[in-house]
Design goal:
- By secondary structure, this protein is α/β, with parallel strands linked by helices.
- Helix content is 32%, strand content 27%.
- Helix 6 packs across helix 7.
- The longest helix has 15 residues.
Length: 338
């Protein structure tokens, strides 16, 4: 029986370790009223821009939005974008403890999105990145920092954006050490071969990823359950959470009945960051000793992505869930925070 009051009270004392691909997200907003005379392309009259920590950093921001603390480990380049990220992290004071490893051989991953202010239309995205695996020297630094942090956290998130930080060696070192210390590991996967995540506690593929990696159809609940069971068996995980976009989420836990948790009927313009919200909530609640289904239902209540961009700490809240001594009962979509 899940007591949400007790779980929420425990969140403030939890620390989650997040390791993964860090990004700097910039959003340039303006109006489009003409086409360039130089090429058949719209001209955006830029009016404002905003910068936030993205990628795995968005997981960290979601963790602290719940009231927990996060230790974050990632890689930046020796460049202006890396310095901006360090400055942004400093604004979180004691809520996020960043361990940023500088790799002069690669740029900080940076994404600039150009957005029509009036129509909320994503016009163009420009990326600066090097997606190859980090060097052995950087791997050593990541593993050393991770092992030092693991004793001080209640759960671990591997936030894999396939940019090269989570190499096979790093993933194996993190999962093996976390299992030795009996810490749950939540994986947001992007590897070509999910075998690298062997031993993770729960893995969270989307519908396409689940189908691709199990080579099974995933149109119906029965098909999703069969594919999730295959994946759980293949990677030795306790659970699989398939995220299904507008169809909600599907939870498979070894030895239990699978559960389809529908989405809220809200209008969504951009689902960017929903997966980060889910894994951050799962990690925080699993660290608080909440069971899988209750954690997933709270995560579902927290997913609130209906505007133009990812703003984890300002976009979600738990008050969409009614507190009940028996179970999590969600009365409606989570409300925006401003």
């Amino acid at each position: 029986m899940f007591n949400i009051d007790s779980a929420l009270d425990r969140i403030a004392s939890q620390t989650v370790l997040c390791i993964g691909d860090l990004m700097l997200d910039e959003f340039v907003y303006g109006e489009v009223s003409r086409v360039s005379p130089e090429a058949p392309a719209p001209v955006i009259a830029a009016k404002r821009s905003e910068i936030i920590i993205g990628g795995a950093g968005n997981v960290a921001r979601n963790v602290v939005s719940l009231g927990a603390r996060c230790i974050f480990i990632g890689v930046v380049g020796d460049d202006d974008a890396g310095q901006v990220i360090a400055k942004e992290f400093s604004g979180y004071k004691n809520a996020i403890e960043p361990h940023l490893i500088t790799d002069p051989s690669r740029p900080t991953t940076r994404k600039v999105r150009f957005v029509s202010e009036h129509y909320s239309t994503h016009l163009l995205r420009a990326d600066w990145e090097h997606a190859g695996p980090v060097s052995a020297h950087i791997e050593d630094a990541l593993i050393t920092r991770t092992k030092a942090a693991l004793a001080h956290v209640g759960a671990v998130v591997l936030s894999d954006y396939a940019k090269g930080v989570l190499t096979t060696r790093v993933i194996r070192a993190v999962i093996d050490e976390a299992r030795r210390l009996r810490k749950p590991v939540i994986v947001d996967p992007k590897a070509h071969d999910y075998a690298v995540y062997q031993g993770a506690t729960i893995i969270t593929p989307n519908r396409k990823e689940l189908s691709d990696h199990t080579r099974r159809p995933v149109s119906t609940d029965a098909e999703i359950a069969a594919a999730a069971a295959d994946l759980a068996s293949a990677v030795g995980s306790s659970a699989v959470l398939a995220t299904l976009s507008q169809d909600g989420m599907f939870l498979y836990v070894t030895g239990a009945e699978p559960v389809h948790i529908p989405a809220y009927p809200v209008k969504v313009r951009d689902v960017s960051g929903a997966g980060d919200t889910v894994v951050a909530t799962l990690a925080t609640l699993l660290a608080s000793k909440v069971d899988f289904e209750a954690a997933v239902r709270v995560a579902r209540a927290r997913v609130a992505v209906g505007r133009r961009r990812v703003r984890g700490e300002n976009r979600v809240r738990l008050e969409g869930c009614r507190r009940s001594r028996a179970r999590v009962a969600c009365a409606g979509p989570a409300r925006w925070l401003h």
